[in-house]
Amino acid sequence: MNSRQRRGVILLLLSVLCAFGAFAGVLSVISDVNSKVGPEVDAYRLKSNVTPYTTLSARQFEKVSMPKRWLSDNAVTDIGEIEGKIAVTQLQKGSLMQSDMMVKSPELRPGEQEIAIMIDAATGVAGKITAGATVNVYATFAGERDGEPAQSKVIVSNARVLDVGRLTALEPDNDNRANQATEAVPITFALNTLDTQRIAYAESFAEHVRLALIAAGSDGTIRPGDRTYTLDKDK
Fold first, then answer.
1. How far apart are CA 16 and CA 13, in angstroms?
2. Measuring CA to CA, which residue among 100, 136, 128 is closest to residue 185?
3. CA-to-CA distance for 220 and 217, rounded, in angstroms?
4. Distances in Å between the alpha carbon of 68 and those of 19, 47, 81, 97?
5. How far apart are CA 123 and CA 207, in angstroms?
6. In contact, 138 and 154? CB cutoff 8 Å
7. What is the DSSP letter of 142?
8. 40-104: which CATH number, 3.90.1210.10, 3.90.550.10, 1.10.3370.10, 2.40.30.90?
9. How far apart are CA 235 and CA 227, in angstroms?
């Protein structure tokens, strides 16, 4: 073997060694990327905006694959977790669904009934009352006879809210009162029979019905002597 042939063999061996080195480098990079990214899992992304208190379903989401380490601990990875839940806040298109964005839809307990009434959006809801909340229901009545004072009554205490509907524009009454509500929200309660009758009576005959939100863990029960208020009590 002459010197030219020896140089060719050496160059060929060097080329093979460089190729092995490059291949090993690529494998190392791939291994490093895999160790940093980790395995992929399914996540669910919203196809469109979802308003608060809307019942969620699988058709509102699209499945995407993402590295598990990039997802938060409360990310939804099973579409079955969504079914039957309701959104607790405004959900934006493209957001990845998380468990704290939804709650289980409240259900009736034995002996309870559902009743829904329209509540003035400005004075009765103010955007803070949601499904699962507990409220006291107040109603104001005009005096039954001329000269009798108007009354404010606690119609129901510790009423459990099942659902809060969408804001609805109201058509004005013929009397065109200045303080007439222009927008209302349907509120659905879970109540026993007597409280259901009280709510129905208040909606039919009260001048105004308002809700007072009770802090979580608090007891909103009103003492019998405090359930009715007239202005002369403060004199």
1. 5
2. 128
3. 9
4. 34, 21, 17, 14
5. 13
6. yes
7. -
8. 3.90.1210.10
9. 18
User: Where in the chain is CATH 3.90.1210.10?
Assistant: 40-104
Yes or no: say if 65 and 48 are a contact pair by the CB < 8 Å rule.
no
Is 94 in contact with 45 (CB distance < 8 Å)? yes
**Cα–Cα distances in angstroms (integers) from residue 90 to residues 6, 100, 101, 127, 166, in the given order:** 75, 12, 9, 12, 12
Query: What does the angle CA 179 – CA 184 – CA 189 come to, to the nearest 5 degrees?
Result: 125
pLDDT tens string, the chain, 235 residues long: the values are 566 666 666 666 667 667 766 766 666 655 565 555 567 888 999 999 988 767 888 889 999 988 877 788 888 988 888 887 888 778 899 999 998 888 877 778 888 999 999 888 776 666 678 878 899 999 999 887 777 889 999 999 999 998 888 778 777 665 555 455 678 888 999 999 999 999 999 999 999 899 999 887 788 788 888 888 887 767 6
Do strands 151-164 and 134-141 pair parallel, antiparallel, or not at all (unpaired)? antiparallel
Give 116: exposed, middle or buried? Use CB within 10 Å, 0-12, 13-18, 19+.
Answer: middle
CA distances (Å), 92 to each of 45, 95, 96, 222, in order?
Answer: 10, 6, 9, 40
Helices (H), the chain: 3-37, 193-205
